[in-house]
Specification:
This protein has 388 residues and is α/β, with parallel strands linked by helices. It has 13 helices and 11 strands. It folds into 2 domains: 243 residues, 3-Layer(aba) Sandwich (Aspartate Aminotransferase, domain 2); 129 residues, Aspartate Aminotransferase, domain 1 (Alpha-Beta Complex). Helices cover 36% and strands 15% of the residues. The longest helix is centred in the last third of the chain and has 19 residues. It starts with 10 loop residues before the first helix and ends with a helix. The protein binds pyridoxal-5'-phosphate. Pyridoxal-5'-phosphate (PLP) binds next to helix 3 and helix 4.
Length: 388
Amino acid sequence: MVDQRNRKQSIVTRVAQALHFVEAETGAVIPSIQPSATYARDNNYEIRKPYWYRRDGSQTTVHAEAIIAELENAEASLLFSSGMSACTAVIEHLPTGAHVVAPKVMYHGVLQQIQKYESNKRIVVSSYEAGNLADLAAVVRDGQTQLVWVETPNNPNWDVTDIAAAAEIAHAAGAKLLTDCTGTPPCMTKALDLGADISFHSATKYLNGHSDITAGVLSVKKVGQFWENIFWVRKLQGTVLHSQDAWLLIRGMRTLFLRVEKSCSNAMAIAKHFEGHQNIETVLYPGLPSDPGHEIAKHQTGGQFGGMMSLIVRGTEQNAIDVIRFCELFYPATSLGGVESLIEHRKTVSGEGFPVHPGLLRLSIGIEDADDLIYDIEQSLSRVFGVT
Ligand code: PLP
């Protein structure tokens, strides 16, 4: 018989069982939700560590953080009440005047937040073309830049940035690298193993997977003073994830690997179907061999390419909007990473001034039947453009 005692369990198993959770008193295999806002001191009037007040977190939130830390190969993870509050905590912890390098095109909410801090003179920002390492290297300031922000694949064009190469550039200048790989969750992208110092994910998306919470998570390979400072921003602003939402996140993560695999295979089928289609100018999807980011994505995201893609529709901006209007299966909604497929006109959602192609439709591919999804877009295109 093979000695299995030293065998390491797969992360797939660990996540499916929420780290083999068993409640000590009852044997329940599903954790309870700990909703308490405050915790009684003991008979000596001492705090019963580790919890004393909800802004520090609760056992439900800490359980969810432990699962994500294993997924990320992280020393620690911190959950926030939204992706935006996690990103804001990172920006907020920087000293006044810190130099930050960020992409010109990225998730519009984070971009707006970075621009707001810049216009308030809290930070100094230099921008680079997403995915372009030479451009990134050119704006990093030796000994001055404190944070390099990489979103990969980036919203909504799905440009891929080589995380290991970006880490080298950041570290050579003495900066930390933050990656936002929300589009390819940590069952696909191991950003910390590739060299990122802080890995961020909007856990609203694939980690939860059911479009019923907002959450954000930061993870680090090595804790230090900067991590303490970020923790203090969360504590003082009270942006820790609620226990109920942490519980939903734990439940959602149990099926993370299954959901992501199906979303990826659906997305690949849809991308292949519409590449070269008469009504589609371009399919933006790193899974296509023709995509400029394909080779990097191949090794960076574990051989899968994610469930996010964009279609640039031929014709007018109104034609693109009409394609959404005539879809009967895709939900015309923002967000991503849920089991249901969503479609949105990115220019309408991002607002005026955001650099995006007017014909670009962003698709979040869910776990439905791929042929049903393809048919839905096909029938919509034929209603917009007529059957040819
Ligand atoms: N980063 C990316 C890439 C996103 O797509 C989003 C949300 O869509 C966020 C950050 C912000 O996350 P949240 O909506 O959870 O605040």
